[in-house]
Amino acid sequence: MGALKVRRIRLLGVGRDYEVSFLDNEGEVASLAIIAGQISTGKTSVLEFITYCLGARDFPHHPEIRSRVGKALLECEMQGSTFVIERSASEIPSKTAVIHSCDLEGLGQSHPSRETVIAPNNDPESLSQYLLTQFGLGNVLLKEAPTKDASGVDRLSIRDVLKLMIIENSNLDDKNLLYENSQPVVRLKHEQVLDLMFGAHDNTAASLAAEAKSLEYDINERSLELRTIDAFMSEQKVPAIDVINSRVISLHSEKSDLESSLDTIEHQMAAEAAFGDEQRLVYQEAGAKARELSNRQRETRTQLERLSALAAQYDQDIKKLVFAKEAKRIFDPLAIQICPWCLQEVDASISSSTESCKVCHQPLSDIEDNFDVDREINASRRRHKELAELLDEMRSEDAEISLGLDAAIAGQKHAQSSFDAVMQGRFSPFMAERDEILASMNRVEHSLEQFLQLTTMQNSRDRRWKELANLRQSLADLRDAQHSADLRNVTRAQVIDSLNSRFGSILSDFHFPKLSEPSLDLRYIPSVRGLRYDLIGSSGAMTLISLAWYLSVFEISTEAGGAHPGLLMIDSPQKNLLPATDQLADEYQGPAIAQGVYNHIANWCGGTNGSGQQVIIVDNDPPPQVERFVVARFSGDNRHPPYGLIDDATN
Question: How far is the CA of 588 from the CAs of 188, 420, 513, 517, 532, in angstroms?
């Protein structure tokens, strides 16, 4: 089966995106890609996002990621096809993923896509089963008790395979290389996955047959679909793709010519428009005059409404004052019957003079009258008269404005008619030609749209044929794998023999001190110097043994055409191999050993066996001899970008 290769990882952010590319200068996937840089810059997060897009449970939750990243996009390459896996990077890990049959640049265009679920892993529509099918591991069942025929079974998950695709920092020295300290069912399942990598699994033949049957069903379905599409396109007489492309080029050329002709006519019309400047000015002046008179009329009528209301108020005030005057004359405003001083009845006959008070008989001329009704009446009538005269003047002015406005509107219409008549005479020769060009452009654009739709149909059919060819090739590979499995009938003991040889060779390349008796037992557990790896007592030795073990499995499986996906990710391969400045180095620490690790990986990736596979490494400070393989270097210093994976999170 073809190897899985990671081309690019892109994180969609709130304000911008973040991307790491694993392509070389020629645009091909680099067999060895190194991400270097300081601690806490996001190197490990790159690997975590890759595994997350491949089906891992969770993504890194660092503060800069939670606040900036919304989605993760992983562009992969397999069997000659490129696809993108999209997963949401929200606070809760997504339960679905979308697989796009295009590259990252094609996401904005029409393309086939399918939504898959993350769990349960045994769902035929899950991301796990989709990827395992690509690896030739679809429908693989693992026994919970391998030695019992009636044992329960568990379907293989992508997460089981991911354990052999990434060497996490903690895997290098945690004394749990093969999950010896985990539950027995986990340990047994991991052994069976290792068997699968080399075709030694008891259920290999059955798994291959089930996978072949699934592929046959898929091929039949797609073949029927393509026959239906071909019949439809034949009935619709859809031209061949070369005819369509030729016609599209011709239509683009015709459209370009029409656009040039339209520009020429519009320039000529613009030149002719200058001759109507005088009529245009008259029309503009008439319009300005009409607007001015309209504004004056509106202001005048507003004042008339307000002043009319005031005049009515004055009229009411005058009536009230006249009424008050009449009432004072008719009625005694102070009809006192008992004198407040002597308490005797007041005799009105004693003094009948209107010039003296009826109570105290003093002359009224000596008392100041604070309110003169007659004076107020006269003043109100005078103001009312002045207001009435002003209203008459304003009504006359309003009538004049109305007449002027009617004349201005008529003048504006006349100026517009004159302007239209002048311009129509000049533009008429161009308008018909312009309308004809626009009609031709609409026709060409409509034809272009139709032919582009036909191109999409043809491209879609070609893509489906290519996918069908890939499926048929996968089926052929499965048949070959079945035949090879029948011929080889590989046992675990044979696999262990192959791994022992490679395990010792790799440790030798690592310059493992005092190397002797490198081996793996029948449960894949490594030993050196006659001691099991977790009993050696040196963290540096455990790192070397763990790296050699993973690389042995990776190299032997891929070289023999096994089921390993062909992708290996390593986090901090120099862990425990370089001495701290304040400590004495043990025999497993030193630059030569760390360089030996990198030399082996670089040599294998650059050789024939490793050219089709991919190794991705993250490390703080890889040695100089592998500098050419560094695809990204994070400085951790905002003065020297890029700061890190999230390169604008510099605080």
Answer: 32, 96, 7, 17, 17
The rounded mean pLDDT for the chain is 84
Contact assessment for residue 29 and residue 7, using Cβ atoms and an 8 Å cutoff: yes
Kindly compute the dihedral angle of the four CA atoms of residues 402, 407, 413, 414, in this order, to the nearest 10 degrees: 180
Task: Give the mean model confidence (pLDDT) for residues 388-404.
Answer: 87
Residue 531 tokens, joined = 């001691």
Chain length of the chain: 651
- Reading the block at residue 614, the tokens are 């991919």
Burial 483-522 (b: 16+ CB within 10 A, else e): eebeeeebebeebbebbbebbbebbebbbbbeeeebbbee
CB 30 within 8 A of CB 24: yes
On whether residue 600 sits in a domain, the answer given is no
Using alpha carbons only, give the angle 480, 481, 485 rounded to the nearest 5 degrees: 120
Amino acid at 5: K
Task: Record the pTM.
Answer: 0.60
The span from the CA of 295 to the CA of 304, in Å, is 14
In a domain, 499, yes or no: no
Q: What's the rounded Cα separation, in Å, for the pair 238 and 65? A: 49
Tokens of 126: 């899950």
Final residue of a structural domain among 406, 426, 446: 426
For residue 120, say if its preceding peptide bond is cis, omega within 30 degrees of 0: yes
Domain residue limits at 76:
1-165+612-651
401 and 300 Cβ atoms separated by less than 8 Å: yes
Q: What angle do CA 80, 86, 89 make, to 5 degrees?
A: 150
Pairwise CA distance, residues 551 & 597, whole Å = 11
Share of the chain above pLDDT 90, in %: 36
Find residue 82's DSSP bridge partners: 77
Residue 368's pLDDT band (cuts 50, 70, 90): very low
Best CA proximity match to 592, nearest among 573, 582, 578, 603: 578
C-beta separation of 76 from 6 below 8 A: yes
Tens digits of residue pLDDT in 223-234: 888 888 888 888
Q: What is the pLDDT of residues 497-515, one digit of tens each?
A: 999 999 999 999 999 999 9
pLDDT of residue 47 exceeding 70, the answer is yes
What are the φ/ψ torsions at residue 5 (nearest 5 degrees)?
Answer: -130, 135
Task: List 166's β-bridge partners, or say none.
Answer: 569
* Number of other CB atoms surrounding residue 82 within 10 Å: 16
Q: Which CATH number fits the domain that encloses residue 24?
A: 3.40.50
Q: Is residue 247 part of a domain?
A: no
Cβ contacts of residue 458 below 8 Å, gap of 6+? 238, 240, 241, 244
Mean pLDDT throughout 522-533?
Answer: 94
CA dihedral (620, 624, 630, 636) positive or negative: positive
User: Rounded to an integer, what distance in angstroms lies between the CA atom of residue 18 and that of residue 12?
Assistant: 7
180 within some domain: no
Please say if the pLDDT value at position 354 is more than 80.
no
Note the pLDDT of residue 336. Answer: 62
Query: Token pair of 356, please?
Result: 């003296």
CB < 8 Å & 24+ apart, contacts of 442-445: 444/251, 444/254, 444/255, 444/258, 445/255
Same domain, 160 and 293: no
Pair 122, 141: CB distance under 8 Å: no
Residue 114: beta bridge partners?
Answer: 99
